[in-house]
Amino acid sequence: MNEKIRVLVVDDSAIVRKVFATELSREKDIEVVGTAPDPFVARDKILKLWPESV
Fold first, then answer.
1. Which end of the chain, N or C, is less surrounded by CB atoms within 10 Å?
2. Would you state the pLDDT for residue 2?
3. Do residues 6 and 33 touch, judged by C-beta distance below 8 A?
4. In a domain, 54, yes or no
5. What pLDDT score does 54 carry?
6. Domain count, the chain
7. CATH code at 21?
C-alpha cells in the first residue's frame, strides 16, 4: 500500500504544531496536509483538506 496517511496537526501552540508537523513529515507513510491553531480553524481545514487523522 503506497497511499500516505493524511494528517492535520491541531494545537494552540505554534511551536508544538511545528515540531509535530516536522516529525510526522519524516515518516514515509504520513503526509501532513496542514496545521491549525484551534478547532474552529481545524474544522474549515478538515472540510477542505480531508485528512484521515485529526
1. N
2. 73
3. yes
4. no
5. 46
6. 1
7. 3.40.50.2300
Question: pTM above 0.70?
Answer: yes
Whether residue 40 lies inside any domain: the answer is yes
Cell of 16: 508544538
Asked if 35 and 21 touch (Cβ cutoff 8 Å), the reply is yes
The reported pLDDT for the residue numbered 53 is 52
Question: Quick check: 32 and 18 in contact, CB under 8 A?
Answer: no
Q: 46, 45, 53: which is closest to 29 by C-alpha?
A: 53
Mean pLDDT by 10 residues, the chain (54 residues): 89 98 97 97 96 70
